[in-house]
Amino acid sequence: MSEEPKELNQDSQQIEFVEDLDATGLYCPEPVMLLHNRIRDIAAGEALRLTATDPSTTRDVPKFCLYLGHELVENLRQGNNYVYLIRKKGES
Do 72 and 62 form a contact (C-beta atoms < 8 A)? Predict the structure, then answer.
């Protein structure tokens, strides 16, 4: 079972990201499909931010990271948005 995203607050760490992926208004499976396509375009070790409104992303994004070996750095709730900071896995 996935962990519920925590509310975004001032104490949350600042993570640099090279891509800002807006999946608001999209429904499963579109946010993860966009994430999958976009993460291919960034270098290993770089991070991207995904913002979504679909609650199913709280299940799908952590599983996507787990299965593909990417690091889910942050999993936040900001109002009606779910915000994920994901670092692309290093080269094998």
Answer: yes
pLDDT in tens, the chain (92 residues): 445 554 444 444 566 889 999 999 999 999 999 999 999 999 999 999 999 999 999 999 999 999 999 999 999 999 999 999 999 998 75
Helices 57-68 and 30-39 sit at what angle, rounded to 10 degrees?
A: 30
Token couple for 17? 């990201």
Q: Which of 28, 72, 73, 76 is catalytic?
A: 28
Annotated catalytic residue 65: no
Fold category of 15-87 in CATH: Translation Initiation Factor IF3 (3.30.110)
HEC string of the chain equals CCCCCEECCCCCCCCCCCEEEEECCCCCCHHHHHHHHHHCCCCCCCEEEEEECCCCHHHHHHHHHHHHCCEEEEEEEECCEEEEEEECCCCC
